[in-house]
Amino acid sequence: MQYLIIPALALLSLLTPAFAYLHIGSASQAALKLDGTRFEPLLASDPATQPNIRTRFEITSNGSSGLYCGKPEDEFNAGYAHFTNSEGMEDKHMFWWLFKARHDPENAPLVVTFGGGPGASALLFPFSGAGPCVIQTDKDGRGEAVPAPHSWTENANVLALDQPVGVGFSYGHSLRNTSAATAWDVDDFLQEFWLQYPYLVKNQFMISSGSYGGVFIPHVVNTIHSRNLEGSAKANRTIKMPESVMMANAWSDAQSHYLWFHQSNCVDNPFFNTTVCNDIVNALPGCLNAVQYAYEQSTPANRFAAFDACDPVTPWELATRKNYDYREKCPATGCDMNLGPVEDVLNGQKIKEAVGVPQDRKFLIMAVDDISMPFIYNADAVQPAYLLLGPAIADGLRVLVYNGMMDGAVPWRSNLAWMRLLQSPHQLAFRNATEDDYPGVGTIRKAGAGPTGEFTLIKIAEAGHMVVRTRANLLQHLMAQWLQHKPFF
After folding, report:
1. Helices 179-196 and 213-229, interaxial angle, to 10°?
2. Residue 451: DSSP 8-state
3. 28, 86, 175, 183: which has the highest count of C-beta atoms within 10 A?
4. Can you tell me the distance from the alpha carbon of 245 to that of 243, in angstroms, rounded to the nearest whole number?
5. What is the 3-state secondary structure (H, E, C) of 360-386?
């Protein structure tokens, strides 16, 4: 991967495959610095900092004729949720796409998925193998959508949300720059969704995301949980909680990530030489101190300062292997992984006609200007987001984290660390749990009742950051067993 040597931007490139796959410049260029003075805090009266006051639900396509790249019987719905802000203006428009289950969709579980980033489209995951179509690159480097052999729609309805508004096919003004505020939009969408699809309210509901989704998911779960408990809102709400979440290679705690970076990427999978690794060790105390200070006094300036302090801990421009998969060496031209074919296919006429999006509506697989950079300047990543899962876990939320063991961007050790720290009914059992080997898969550590556990970490061998791309069959199996409370193996 070729990077601009930019402290916060380089870190962001590790939080989502979509961003890192974009070619953002040569590592040989002069180092650039993000100018912290550019950060302008949003005023409390700014509608971007306030909850919506109304949501209008629109279906733009019923998809009864099937998706051209899937199976003939595949069905879907797609459309927009239009949000009216605190000033009475309908200014944000969130795109959604429901891929219906191939078997008994009215009773099948609902899996809601969104992208990482911050700023990645939700459509990357379904079109990487979890949906009815997967985008492959032909011999000429062009992208083409073909039937996915291991689609999650065999077992569940899959609902992709292009959130935060501004990514993918979503668009608007007064856009969010925090994961807490984007969670309001997701909850507002879901309330309208349950009204439009009342038969799904009775079904099992799971949220799935990865990478920066490790920040988004806790905020969404916490928002749904806390709003459900607000007495004044109960009369007007569909009280529906996700029964479980699946988090892939999840960035959910900056402190755990940096603390275990050296062990993960200099010892487990040595991405760097001895000199670079020694520099990482020397930089760790200042980095961890800055993150701790930002945790204790969480201002944008303090969080942003932690980005700068931790930049020397993640010198990916000096790695010789791809940070998303240790098995792949960087060629002489650099570790550039291009997702242009994905963006090209989703910008194509067939897709836009299928979902009822105007041909002039540009699809962005990564909304750098509208979402990524505002989140960077607000340093939203520097937070212990995992803590927000605690109340829902106490009320029965099941948590499955899976991690490719070849991933350097978000290594498994950082996920194990925060899972051991999270106070919950499962903490002691998880900390004392053994790690069981599964030949050909990896290892599993679990706590809680049932054959899959209720608080579970699966380390997947021979997989990097995008497990869905390299081990789609295994991931489909894990998802189905998790939903059905059946033994994984």
Report:
1. 60
2. T
3. 183
4. 7
5. CCCCECECHHHHHHHHHHCCCCCCCHH
For residues 348 and 2, give the distance between their C-alpha atoms in angstroms, rounded to a whole number.
Answer: 27
Q: Which amino acid is at 110?
A: L
137 within 8 A of 39, measured Cβ to Cβ? no
Beta bridge partners of 255: none
- DSSP run (H or E) holding 400: strand 398-404
CA 125 to chain centroid = 9
The whole-angstrom separation of Cα 382 and Cα 384 is: 7
**What are the tokens at 181?**
């505020």
DSSP H or E run through 19: helix 17-21
Q: What confidence category does residue 342 fall into, taking pLDDT thresholds of 50, 70 and 90? A: confident
pLDDT in tens, 24-52: 222 222 333 444 444 455 556 788 999 99
For residue 326, the tally of other CB atoms under 10 A from its CB is 21
Q: What is the dihedral of CA 125, 214, 390, 297, to 10 degrees?
A: -160
Q: Torsions phi, psi of 403, nearest 5? A: -145, 125
Contacts of 26 (CB under 8 A, 6+ apart): 2, 4, 334
pLDDT digits 0-9 by tens, 91-133: 999 999 999 999 999 999 999 999 998 999 999 999 999 999 9
- Tokens at 231, concatenated: 């007495």
Give the DSSP H/E element, type plus range, for residue 354: helix 349-355
Cis peptide upstream of residue 439 (ω within 30 degrees of 0): no
Helix axes 274-296, 300-310, angle to 10 degrees: 170
152 close to 479: Cβ distance less than 8 angstroms? yes
Tokens matching residue 414 = 């950082």
Q: Residue 334 to residues 28, 74, 234, 321, 387: CA-CA distances in angstroms?
A: 10, 40, 54, 9, 37
CA distance 409 to 390: 25
Polymer length in residues for the chain: 489
CA distance 175 to 371: 8
C-alpha 42: how far from its chain's center? 25
Cβ distance 334 to 47 under 8 Å?
A: no
Query: Cα separation of 220 and 106, whole Å?
Result: 24
